[in-house]
Write a structure and sequence with these properties.
Number of domains: 1
Structural class: alpha+beta
Strand order of the largest sheet: 2-1-3-4
Protein name: (2Fe-2S) ferredoxin
Shape: globular
Helix content: 25-40%
Order of helices and strands: EHEEEH
CATH topology: Glutaredoxin
Number of helices: 2
CATH architecture: 3-Layer(aba) Sandwich
Organism: Plasticicumulans acidivorans
Strand content: 15-25%
Number of strands: 4
InterPro entries: Thioredoxin-like_sf
CATH class: Alpha Beta
CATH superfamily: Glutaredoxin
Length: 106
């Protein structure tokens, strides 16, 4: 068994403005990460055997972002706002149902 039931990684990469590719950081990734961490904690989902939310560097899919990935299922999501983050938490992390409308292709 894994130390966490779910491990959520938010891409927070910030490329230089002249890099020629989008990156997740300027799309509000850190604010979304902080919102998710606070929400998971408020729901009592943190700790061993539960949920861990972390930032990551580039996950190399920024053109589809902003994005996050949930392990161990390896489900990739995009999001627009905190309502989307809440839906991913409520449906996927709490109820075990993938949020198809936000899911990215494998």
């Amino acid at each position: 068994m894994s130390h966490y039931r779910h491990h959520v990684f938010f891409c927070t990469n910030e490329r230089a403005p002249d890099a020629g590719r989008q990156s997740c950081g300027p799309c509000g990734a850190m604010a979304a990460l902080e919102h998710a961490k606070a929400r998971v904690q408020a729901l009592g989902l943190t700790g061993a055997g539960k949920v861990r939310v972390n930032k990551s560097g580039c996950l190399d899919r920024c053109e589809l972002g902003p994005l996050l990935v949930v392990y161990p299922e390896a489900v990739w999501y995009t999001y627009v706002d905190n309502d989307d983050i809440d839906e991913i938490i409520d449906e996927h992390l709490v109820n075990g149902r993938i949020v198809e409308r936000l899911r990215l292709p494998d």
